[in-house]
Write a structure and sequence with these properties.
The protein has about 100 residues and is mainly β. It contains 1 helix and 8 strands. The protein has one domain: Alpha-ketoglutarate-dependent dioxygenase AlkB-like (Jelly Rolls). Bound molecules: 2-oxoglutaric acid. 2-oxoglutaric acid binds next to β7 and β8.
């Protein structure tokens, strides 16, 4: 679970490419509370970006080579005063 108390809380650019998740992990993510921007940017061309507002009840599924080709982030949004949390679902494999 990720908990964002308000728009000052954020998560910086990263991938979920941990070895324990396997080669091309499928990651599900459900959002609750405040609407926040979710950003994706290509690793080989940081200028190519996608930004989506994730509102209460939004489900995101990332799969395929997403974690090898794209980074994601939830940036600061100082105007957001409400909390948001999100639950992510991922399978941890045994072959580390
Ligand atoms: O809060 C989100 O939507 C992103 C969470 C995230 O990037 C992560 O758990 O790796």
């Amino acid at each position: 679970m990720n908990w964002y108390r308000d728009g000052q809380d954020y998560i910086n650019w990263h991938t979920d490419a941990e070895k324990s998740l396997g080669k091309n992990p499928i990651i599900g993510s459900v959002n609750f509370g405040a609407t926040r921007k979710f950003q994706l940017r290509r690793i080989d061309d940081n200028n190519e970006k996608i930004e989506m507002p994730f509102s209460h009840g939004t489900l995101l599924v990332m799969g395929g080579e997403t974690q090898h080709r794209w980074q994601h982030s939830v940036p600061k949004e100082s105007k957001v005063k409400q909390a948001r949390f999100n639950l992510t679902f991922r399978v941890i494999t045994s072959d580390l």
